[in-house]
Design goal:
Layout (H helix, E strand, L loop, with lengths): L1 E8 L2 E7 L45 E4 L14 E4 L9 E3 L2 E9 H6 L2 E5 L5 E5 L11 E4 L5 E2 L2 E5 L2 E8 L6 H4 L46 H6 L11
Parallel strand pairs: 6-12
Antiparallel strand pairs: 1-2, 3-4, 5-6, 7-8, 9-12, 10-11
Length: 243
């Protein structure tokens, strides 16, 4: 270290300390003729080294593997460590929940009523044929389990998690009325009992859209903001008209 004096004004000086310009704070100088041509007297050279990492089965996201003494080296200092941190990549089919795997599967209404039979390609390339129990009806957003087809437990690779499948039932937009007649013989396809009151007004269902909402129309409570406010904050909601 060297001390430098610098005049900043008449009779005023400032003092600062810093590394020597000649030895660059190393405390020693190497004669130019004795300098190593490879490191130019810096005593270190850059080189590349390949480190092989063996990732354990079932390693969690963020798992750290440490290689001691494999970091940069400097004269008079101990070499540091190299840390390898595992980061999971998203998968187009599966989502990981610990040692379990979760996936969504779209099925038709026919498959929901009669059963499913399809093939899933696992993470390791293995193909799994998935079949439902005969006679089982799969409900929308129903969850079924395939035991021991998840990921291996970390540090206990002979144990496996489960695979969960969430079924999304795709309903048809429209059905042919002639095609419905043979289905009416099935007990679960029978319509609910209708009250044949001829005085009742017949009203047909229509597809919902946001333009049909009348939350802010006259007749509601003043200051209504949403249907939730009507029902959850003391509102009286919808009432039948007085005759």
């Amino acid at each position: 270290m060297v001390t430098k004096m610098q005049m900043i004004g008449p009779g005023m000086y400032t003092q600062s300390s810093g590394p020597c310009d000649d030895c660059r704070g190393q405390g020693e100088m190497i004669d130019a003729k004795n300098k190593c041509k490879e490191c130019d007297g810096k005593k270190v050279v850059k080189e590349k080294k390949i480190i092989e990492v063996s990732i354990d089965k079932g390693s969690p996201n963020g798992c750290v593997y440490t290689f001691h003494g494999e970091a940069d080296e400097y004269p008079g200092q101990e070499a540091g460590d190299v840390l390898i941190i595992c980061a999971e990549k998203p998968h187009k089919t599966f989502k990981r929940k610990g040692a379990d795997l979760m996936m969504e599967k779209e099925i038709t209404l026919f498959e929901a009523l009669t059963g499913v039979d399809f093939v899933v390609k696992h993470l390791d390339g293995q193909k799994i044929r998935v079949k439902s129990t005969p006679g089982e009806v799969i409900k929308p957003d129903g969850i079924n389990t395939i035991l021991d087809k998840g990921l291996p437990f970390h540090k206990t690779s002979f144990k496996f998690g489960n695979m969960f499948i969430i079924f999304k039932v795709v309903f048809p937009e429209k059905l042919d009325t002639n095609a419905l007649k043979p289905l009416e013989a099935l007990s679960f396809m029978k319509k609910t009992q209708t009250d044949n009151d001829k005085s009742a007004e017949v009203c047909m269902l229509e597809a919902y859209n946001e333009g049909q909402r009348n939350t802010h129309a006259q007749g509601g409570q003043e200051g209504d903001e949403s249907d939730d406010d009507e029902e959850g904050h003391g509102g009286q909601g919808v009432r039948c008209a007085q005759q």
